[in-house]
Amino acid sequence: MASHSIGNSIFAAGLGHGTGDTAQSGEDAVTQLRIADSAKVIEASRRASESDVRGRHLSSSTLIAALAELKTDIRSGLSDAEAAARLERDGKNELREDPPPGILILFAQQFLNVIILLLVAACIASFALGEVVEGVAVIIIVVLNATISVATEHGANQALAALKGLAKPTSRVIRAGKEQVVDTSSLVVGDLVLLETGDVVPADCLVVTAADVSVDESLLTGEARAVGKSASPPSPTDEALTPRNEVFMSCTVLSGVARVVVFAIGMETRVGRIAQSLNAASQSEAKSAKSDGGSSASSKPASSGGCCARNTCCRQLCDTGKRTPLQLQLHHLGLAISATALTACIAVFIIGVLRDYRDPEHPDNPPAVQMVLVAVSLAVSAIPEGLPLCVTIALALGTHAMAKQNALVRRLPSVETLGATTVICSDKTGTLTQNRQTAVKAFVAGAGEVDITGKSDAPVGTFTTSDGTPIAGGTTPAMLALLGSVTINSTAKMLVSRFAKDAKPAAGSGDDGESGAFGPVGMRTAPQVRALAEGGYSFLCEGNASEAPLLLAAGKAGIVPDPMRTAMPCMRAIKSAAKAAEAHSPDVPFSSSRKMMATVSALPTGRAAAIATAETPLERACASLACLAGDASASAAGGPAHGEEDVASPLSPSAPSTLLAHVKGAPDVLMPLCSHIAVPDGKGLRAGPMTGAARARVADALHRFSGQALRVIAVAVRVLPGPEPFGTGDMPAGDKLRIILGEDDGPATPARSAAAAAAAGAAAEDVDLQRATGVSALADIGGLPRSSGLVLLGLVASIDPHRPEVPPAVQATREAGIRTIMITGDHVDTAVAIAKSVGILGIGDDAAEASTDCRELRDGQDAVDESVYKSNADLDEMTSRVNVFARAQPLDKLMIVRSLQRQGEVVAMTGDGVNDAPALSKADIGIAMGIAGTEVAKGASDLVLLDDSFATIAKAVSKGRQLYANITSFLQYLLGTNISQVTAILICVAAGLPILLKPLSILVINVLVDTMPAISLSVEPAAEDVMERAPRPRKQRILHGRMFTAILGHSFTLAAGAVACFIVGLVLQTGGTVLAGDLQAMATSAPGQATCTYLDYNGNWAQRDATECGLKGFKEARTMVFVAIVFAELMRGFSVRSHTAPMWHAWASNRALLGAVVASTTVALILLLVPGVSSDVMGFQPIGWPQWLIALAFGPFLTLCVDEFLKARYAVEVQEQTRWEGVRSMLAEMRTELRRVRHHVCRVEGAAAPSHTPDF
C-alpha cells in the first residue's frame, strides 16, 4: 500500500518550532503543516509551484516524452540495479529533519524544571551558609536525578522510534516487470508506483493511467475538495490549482486506482519546497524582529522563534514537548505545591526571626541565617522530586507494554483516555471477525441454492445441492458463468507457496529462484493447481479480502484466474498492451457510495465459445457467458439463438459487440438494476425476464444467507453496444457506469423498448417486492433507473467467522461498564447474526430493537451531508438503544459518534478507510487497523491495532486503566511523604522545637529512598477487578475525594508520629530538654558544669555531660525520626497499591516493588550505619535497639494501622456504593426496557408492510 515517509519537522524547519518528539511520524508533521497559518502555506505553495520548473515541463509534455526524459519503461519500470544506483545518487525519499536531541541537550533540559530549579536554589543557599557537605550532597543528588531522567527519556525515545518502525510506510512499485512492496523512503525518480483509494501519495508523480481518481490537495491549495486526476496534459482552460496529470507527496487518494511515475522525491517535492519557503520566511521575520530591537510586543515571539529557527540546539533545549492532560495536571500540581511551599517558607522565616529561633547544631548562626536553612528544609520537603521521573517512566513503560499487546499508541493522551472509555464502536470485518472470507453457498438459476465445500485456503472442494447431493458434472453452466464472471471482475491474484510440507519447490512454477514465500499461480491448469493443493502447498489470495473467497470458489470449480482472464481478457489489459502511452481503463472500481464495481472484457472466440465442444470447466464457463451474449454460434446444438427467441433481451445490442461488462456488488444495490436473470437453456444459458416470482426467489435466498451471518455478493453481466462504447479519452466513473448499466446506449431500439417494458411488467407484477432502495444508493451516478438491463447470474455467500478471542473480550468490556456497538456495511441480518455470536446482542435482546439499517438514521436518504439526518433528539434516542448499525456509510459513523458524545459517553471508534478519518478524529479514542487500515486512517487515529483484533482493544482499555491506577498510586505515595514532612516542620517551628530533619536528610528520603518504590509502583500488575469497575469519569481530576482523604490521613498521621518520635527521642536522649532554645543553651554551656540522664545504646540509663547531651542527644533524636519516616514510607509502598485490599493481599505480586524496597532499605542502612557517611555527611548519631523500636512504633506501625483502617472503611463504602449502583442500574434497565416496549408498540401499530420484504 502506497504511503509516505516524510521528516519529523516540516513544521519545525519551516516555522521554527520544535515538535518535542524525536520519533514523530510523517503524519504528525503533515498535521502540523495543516494547522499552520493557511495564508503562509498557500503563499509558500505558490512560490514552490513557480520554482518547480521540471514539474511544469513534464506535465505539459506528452506522456511518451515525459517517460523518455525520466528514462522509465511504462511496462517494467526500473531495474533493481538502476533503482539502487539512483537511490545512491539522489538519496532517500525523505524530508530534511532535525537530528534527535543529544545526551547533553537532554541533560540540560532536566534543569529547566521548577522543581530542579528550587533544589539548585537550596544548594546555593547551603554553600552561602557554609554547609559545604550538604551543598555537595545536593549537587550529587540533583545530577544523579538528571542522569536517571536522561537515561530513561533516551530509552523512551529509542522505544518510540522502534514503535514507529512497526508502522513503517511502504509503497507498491513495479520494478523489473514485477510488482514489489518497498519502503517509501527508498523510492527514486522514475519508479512506477501503484496507487489506490486510501493511499497517501509517496512522492511527486506524473499520472500514467488513472481510473476514477480523485485526490485531496487541501494540504497544498487550502481548498477542501476532491481534485480529479487523469493522464491527460493540462489545458489552459483548467480551473484547478495543480496540473491534472500530477499528484503530490502527502496528498490523499480519495477514490480510484492509478499508475504513476515519480519525478521528484524528498526536499525536491512540492511539500519539501513549501517547507524550505516557510523556513526562509521565518528566518526573514526573525531578522526583521532583531533589527527592530524587540521594541514592539509583536516582535517578541518572532524573535524567539527566530532564535530557534537559526539554531537547532537552541530549539531542542527550549522545547519541552507537548504535555498530555495528565502531565498538565501534574505540572499544575507541582506549581501549586511550589507556590504553597514558598508561601510557607516566607511565613516560617518571619515567625522564626520574630521568635529569635536558634538551632542547637549551629548555635552561633544568627536567627535570620538559621531561618534561611529552615526555609530551605521546608522547600525541599514540599517538592516531589521524584514525580517527573516517575511520570516519564510510567508512560514509557505503559506504551511499550501496550505495543507488546499489539496496540501501538500514537498519542500519549490516548493512554489516559482509555481508562475512561464508556462506548466502543467497532467495525465487523477483520476486527470482530477473522477477515478470512470463505465462499460456502451460492444461488444460481436452475440449481437454486448450492453448498460449496472444501478448504478455506485452497481451491479444493465440491458443489452440492442444499440437501447434500453432489451436482452432476461437478457444477452447472450457470454456476460456471457466475464464477467465471467474478474471476474476471477481480483485481485479486492467486498465489501458491514455493514449498510444501516436504520443503520441495512447486513443480513447474518457474519461480523457484525468486524471493518470498509465495509466488503467482500463473498459467497453471486446473489439474495442476488441484495437484499442488492436494500435495500440501498453501494458497493465498492477494488483494481485496472480499474477492479472495470468490477466486478460491472458482478454483474449486476448475477455473484458474490467469487462464480465465486470458480467454476473456479485460479491456484494461488489451489497451495497456496495444497503446501503452494513451491507455485508459473502462473499469469502474469499487467505492463505498456505489457499492459495486465493474470490469469490461472481450467475449470469448473459437473453441472456448462453443458450448457443444467445451470440455474443461474454463471452456464451459466461457461458452456459458457467450451463450448469454446471444451468439448463435455458441448456442447448444439445435438450440435457437437467444437473440432470435427473445427480442427483449438486453444481450442483443443494436450494434455488433465483442465486449461484455461484468458487475458485482451489494444485492440491495445491484438487484434493482437487473431486468433479466440467467436461466438454463439446454447445455447453455439464456436471459429470461426478472419476474416477480424470480425476484422473490432471489430475495428469499438472500434472507436465508444473511440470517446465517453470510456476506452476500450479487453478480450480473451485460453486453455493451458497439465495439468501442467508451471512446478514446478518459471518462468519469459515473459516465462509464451509465454506459455499462445501459442508461446511455444511444437511440432507442425495439429490443431496448421491449426490455424496458419487461422490466416495467416485472415491477407491476409484485409491488411488495419492489421497495425503492437502490435509487438513493446510486444517487452519485445520476439517478439510474431501477432496471438498467443487467442480467443477474446469481448470488455468492461467504462467511467470515468471528475471532475466537472476541466473545470473552466483549464480555470483559461489558463487565467493565463499557458498551460495545457494531457498525458495519453488511446487511442487517448478517450483522445481527455476528453480533449474537460474539455477545454484542444477548439471548434476551430484541434484535429488531437493538439493530437498525443506517438508512433509518436519515429517513432512507443517501448520506450526502448532515442535513439528511434525523434531529439530534431522534438520533440520540436511537443510539441510546441500538447496538448494531448495518449498511453504514462513513458519514453515519461520524453522526453516531457525535450523538453518543452528546449523551456524555467517552467513545472509542475503529476505522480503516479514508472516509473514516473524520469519525476517528472526532472520537475520544480513534483506533485504526494496522493491517487493513489506510495510511490516512492511521494518521487520524490515536491508537493502531497491529493485529486488527477487537480483543486488543479490550486489552488496551485494561492496560490504560492499570496505568492510570498506577500513576495515582505513586502520586499518592510521593505526596503523602512530602506533605507529612512539611506538616512536621511547621509543627516544630510553631511549637518552638528544633527542626527534626536536615535539608539533606529530607532530600535523601525524597529522591534516593522514595523514588525507587514509586517507580516500581508504575509496573504494579493490574488489580483483579480492574475490568469490573465502572469507567472513570473523564473530567475527574487525578486528585479527588478519596485520594485527598488517603493522602491527608497518611500525611497527618506520619507527621504526628514523626514529631512524637522526635519529642520522645529528645526526652530520652537529652534528659527531658525539648525546646530549641533550651537545647541551644545546653549545647553552648561550658563542659563539666552539668550532666544529663539518657538512654544508652544497650537500653540502660546513663549519665553524660550536658554539652555532649545537647549535641549528641539532638542528633540521636533526628536519627530516630529518619528511621521512622524511611521505614514508614517503605511499608507504605505495599499499602498504597490498592485503595481497598489490605497490604498483605498478594504482597509479593510486584517483584519490582520487592526489589525497590530491598534497594532502598540497603541505601538507608548504609546512610545510618557506615561510619563517616552517617556522621560526617548525614549528621546522624548511632542509636541502639530501644531507639529503633520506638522509631518503628511511631513510624511504620502507626501509619500502617491508620492507613489500613481508612482502607477498610473505604472498602465498606465501596460495597455500599456498589449495592446502590446495582439498584440504579436495575432501574435504568427497567427504563430502557419500557422505552423499548413503547418503541415496539409504536412500530407494530404503524407497520403496514409484511414482516419480511427484500431490499429491492
Automatic annotation (TrEMBL):
Domain Cation-transporting P-type ATPase N-terminal: 57-131
Entry annotated with the keyword Transmembrane: yes
EC number from the UniProt entry: 7.2.2.3
Membrane topology per record: Multi-pass membrane protein
Catalytic activity: Na(+)(in) + ATP + H2O = Na(+)(out) + ADP + phosphate + H(+)
SUPFAM superfamilies documented for this protein: Calcium ATPase, transduction domain A (SSF81653), Calcium ATPase, transmembrane domain M (SSF81665), HAD-like (SSF56784), Metal cation-transporting ATPase, ATP-binding domain N (SSF81660)
SMART domains associated with the record: Cation_ATPase_N
Region Disordered, annotated ranges: 286-306
Enzyme class: translocase
Cell compartments where the protein resides: Endomembrane system
Transmembrane segments: 102-129, 333-354, 374-397, 970-996, 1044-1068, 1120-1140, 1152-1173, 1185-1202
One term of GO molecular function: P-type sodium transporter activity
Cellular component annotations (GO), alphabetically ordered: endomembrane system; plasma membrane
Keyword Magnesium: yes
Alphabetized UniProt keyword annotations: ATP-binding, Ion transport, Magnesium, Membrane, Metal-binding, Nucleotide-binding, Sodium, Sodium transport, Translocase, Transmembrane, Transmembrane helix, Transport
Coiled-coil regions listed: none
Entry similarity comment: Belongs to the cation transport ATPase (P-type) (TC 3.A.3) family.
Protein name, UniProt field: P-type sodium-transporting ATPase4
UniProt source species: Cafeteria roenbergensis (Marine flagellate)
